[in-house]
# Entry
Amino acid sequence: MSPDRIAALDTNLLLLWLVIETDQALLRTYKRVSTFEESDARLLASELQPFETVVTTPHVLAETTNLLDHAPLYRRSALFDTLRRFIDGHQEWYEEARTLCRLESFMNLGLADTALLSVSRRATVITVDWRLAGKIELQGGRVVNFNHLRNLMR
# Structure
């Protein structure tokens, strides 16, 4: 499958996707997604439409579960159920941490974003992280800076 048919979401956008699928009202009550608006949820859904599949990494999933620990108690269980369904329905691309931590980008990006940088050779990474987007562009990977899309829509 062509890289322009495969998407990978950064942690923040995966969290937004989980909130959209679970309870959009959380955009107003869950601090970790409070920078997003309902229009961003629609924009993300629209941006994902052309892709045949969405992939993830274990490192992004680990960061996501850590952020879900801060979700409002009354919706935490539902969010974890949505995450479980996401995991069941999507591929997980794995690259060992011992390999990733030897890459130059590890010191600046950390583990999860270095994994996404690696994934960008085989998939389009959609991110809100300016630094990650810049690194991917510099290395010739595929990236969509979601912030650019948001600014264009406003």
